[in-house]
Amino acid sequence: MAKTRLTITLDQDILKRVDSAIDGSKIRNRSHAIEYLLTSCLIPQSTKVLILAGGEGVKFRPLTDTLPKSLLPIKGKPLLEHTLLFLKEQGLTEIYISVAHLGKKIKDYFGDGARFGIRIKYIEQTIARNGTAQPVLQAKDFFSDEPFLVIYGDVLTKLNFLDLLDFHNSHRGIATMALASVEKPSMWGVATMEGNRIKDFVEKPQTKTRSHLINAGIYVLSPEVFKYIGSNSVRLEKDVFPRLAREGKLYAYPFESEWYDVSTPQIYTEVIKGF
One Pfam family of this protein, by short name (predicted)? Predict the structure, then answer.
């Protein structure tokens, strides 16, 4: 994102409060603190979040025969609770959770979100088909008025969601994909960038790729995206994002924050040790 240098004058007490926000990791310096605090104020607090938590967690069976993957325990809390609390920290409290497999257990645990300081509504997946496209399309009536954040229920991250939203709003594209960097990208969808756009997106490429930037399972989508999701679309990664990339309407948001895709028992073990 293009930056503009400014000179500003602040009251000493305000400057002390700005400096108190600097933690050396999420907020690195005074300039970043001012940008972060302004972004927090300017991003509409009504920004809605859609979490896709309907997956069956096949690789975790037999555990996920009785427990949804999003409720797998990590440091004393379900995986999904970590995400919800981090969203709350950033002022994102209007949450919609798309549920299917053992969805009642998710609803019983989180309820309406009041005890977590957030508001939760649930969307029951009505199409018995694996994939990410139909749950998003099914949520159309709730997300038709402004860009919204989409997070996969098995993703654990400390990403600055407000900065991601700010980036998306600055270019007014149809979709922005958060990109993590990994050594072996072939397990995920791989993105090739040109400027701040994704010029090519391939889900689990069969041939070696130069890019190490992969789909982090976190997006900001504008309502126009629903025009790209048909009734036969199965996966955003195969049926929607490649087309958006070809049309120059898929933007990239590379980030370096902590990120895990809790998609296998091996990664789950790593998360328990390191998150």
Answer: NTP_transferase
